[in-house]
Amino acid sequence: MGKNRLEAFSDGVIAIIITIMVLELKVPHGDEIAVLLPLVPVLLSYVLSFVYLGIYWNNHHHMLHTCRTVTGSVLWANLHLLFWLSLVPFTTGWMGENHFATLPAAMYGFVLLMAAIAYWILQQRIIASQGEESILKKAIGNDWKGRLSPFMYVAAIALAFSAPWTAVAIYVLVAVIWVVPDRRIERVLTGREAGE
Amino acid sequence: MGKNRLEAFSDGVIAIIITIMVLELKVPHGDEIAVLLPLVPVLLSYVLSFVYLGIYWNNHHHMLHTCRTVTGSVLWANLHLLFWLSLVPFTTGWMGENHFATLPAAMYGFVLLMAAIAYWILQQRIIASQGEESILKKAIGNDWKGRLSPFMYVAAIALAFSAPWTAVAIYVLVAVIWVVPDRRIERVLTGREAGE
Amino acid sequence: MGKNRLEAFSDGVIAIIITIMVLELKVPHGDEIAVLLPLVPVLLSYVLSFVYLGIYWNNHHHMLHTCRTVTGSVLWANLHLLFWLSLVPFTTGWMGENHFATLPAAMYGFVLLMAAIAYWILQQRIIASQGEESILKKAIGNDWKGRLSPFMYVAAIALAFSAPWTAVAIYVLVAVIWVVPDRRIERVLTGREAGE
Amino acid sequence: MGKNRLEAFSDGVIAIIITIMVLELKVPHGDEIAVLLPLVPVLLSYVLSFVYLGIYWNNHHHMLHTCRTVTGSVLWANLHLLFWLSLVPFTTGWMGENHFATLPAAMYGFVLLMAAIAYWILQQRIIASQGEESILKKAIGNDWKGRLSPFMYVAAIALAFSAPWTAVAIYVLVAVIWVVPDRRIERVLTGREAGE
């Protein structure tokens, strides 16, 4: 199995997921500003999920870049990841249409958590396929983002039941952590540790 | 006709099929757990079909890997396979929304059966195009999975009329047989034959 | 403009068109055979359009294969073709849901006619871009299929107003003419001419 | 990050956007000409957006052609552009279904404006990544189209509140300016300047 076709297929699926998500933003009846207002939370959750899928697509690319041979377990771990990502449009729409209510916000976090776990499994399968001197293992380093995110999702899911907006704030925070390049964050974190 | 474009087109179609299937999982009104419950069978049938399409994508890739020239009959046999796969979202949604009732469960098996036959035809067309020393013919070996599956689908369709859940169990079993790597299954089967 | 990206984009659009067409086959309420019956004409028109898009994809590939440089006019002629093809799911659904009634059957033919004209324009643009010794010009030969089809569509559109089913029969006939490899048809035609 | 995968992903997203837009053209009930009439403005706005997405796809390709390395900021600037383009089906459907009324027409222009700005940001990020001797910088020249378009969108948005059809006329004009090859337009403009 060449990795090119795995990349092409994953790109295709992620591109479709990111695009059909916008179908939840249904064209309203009427042409006044009032009919747009109920769509604002749907749009906001769309923006958030768009960023998440962008992050996954980006990281997925870098991860596969180090991969030479695609074993059967890498292939199924990849499909497992795509499965959880394919549920993102559903949780995005549900959360947006219910104005970030408790259960939809928790469910949104649950799917992100499962996607993060699926990503981690895929990462482990690729490392295992590369044997001792795994390039990917070196490349991810201490992988603090990858190890921190699942805990933040769990915290967000728990918080959703008392303060759903806190959960959403945590999802935004995790996205920001991934989007902002490492060095800057690390400098900020180091600064804080040194400063406080 | 280069095989690259055939692969790319097939990948595209399968990626779209696998992703639009999730559109059947319609965002419910309300934010309570109760509104999610009717979606459970839809989700379960989605999982099953996701695995089936993953299997087809995977096997399709391996099969085309051995293919050098794409004849007209290979091309149309491939489109024939994609046609039946394109009906999977429909039967998946129908089976899920009717909680695995008789007719939808039988229809689900019928489309799987037709896809299996279409796959077999494509395989024969590629083998024929490769002439005597066909690599694909050697690669598939005795092809026990490919020969067994249609009979299991036929059995499932028949059983759907008395016990629809048995039909679904058979669909799950066929998927498991394809996902689990050969050697392990063969060892299990050999072990059983020897042990009993 | 490299032709690879033009091919990839066209493949993507055609793959999506062919797949979203199946969304017109809406999952019915109820699990009896009766709820499937209204879908039969929708399915039949889907099969017909699937074959047409398969033909276009196939011919489009062969045509671009001869193309080396993509000029601006080739690019827009290609988008023009994709535009008309993108209307096929609409006319397919409309014709299927109205059981091949007059106006939908005529409209179906109109979009096929416009697609055929768009294809012809694209062909001319590529030939023009290749200058004197155009490979494509030689490859298409007398292009009897390409020249015959528009007239058959026009005849079908006219006939739709008195006998819509005749129009549909002509659409099927045109598809058959394109799917069946040339030599066989030519032999049949030659045989007839010689025999009668 | 190789630019090939960025191109392939962008192509995929644009191909899907251009195609799902047609889903707003919903199959009507009934088979008379009367049921088609309400769809005419939807079709017209679809044609306009199809041309816009074709222009973006075309220009995007030429821009990336000059790009050798894809930095993190280029990648996110590209996703930012795709985000705004992904909203085009929504504004297209809203404008079409409301017969080019004030607010939908203004909103349509707003998304075009944001896409134009996103495109400009992406252009700047690529030029910055190429350093001093940027090929892209030379290639775009004075970029009069790119600099003029945002102002025309702003004018159209303002005009939409008094005369929505003028706004639409401006959108058509901008599309024409981009589609028609430069030299011809420049000759026309030069001719006018000289003649008047």
**Series of secondary-structure elements of chain A, N-terminal to C-terminal:** HHHHHHHHH
Largest interface: A-D, 32 and 31 residues
| CA-atom Rg of chain A in angstroms | 18 Å
User: Which percent range fits the helix content of chain A?
Assistant: over 70%
* Main sheet overview of chain A: none
| Coarse shape of chain A | globular
Question: DSSP helix count of chain A?
Answer: 9
The fraction of residues in strands of chain A falls at under 5%
Number of E-type strands of chain A: 0
* Helix vs. strand class of chain A: mainly alpha
Task: Note down, in words, how this protein is organized.
The structure is a homotetramer of 196-residue chains. Chain A is 77% helix and 0% strand. Chain A is mostly helical. The N and C termini of chain A lie far apart (52 Å). Chains in contact: A-B, A-D, B-C, C-D. At the A-D interface, helix 1 and helix 2 of A face helix 1, helix 3, helix 4 and helix 5 of D.
Topology:
The structure is a homotetramer of 196-residue chains.
Chain A: H1 3-20, H2 40-65, H3 72-86, H4 88-97, H5 102-130, H6 135-140, H7 144-160, H8 164-179, H9 182-195
Helix pairs in contact in A: 1-2, 1-3, 2-4, 2-8, 3-5, 4-5, 5-7, 5-8, 7-8
Concise account of the structure shown:
The structure is a homotetramer of 196-residue chains. With 196 residues, chain A is mainly α.
Any descriptors?
9 helices; 196 residues; 0% strand; homotetramer; globular; mainly alpha
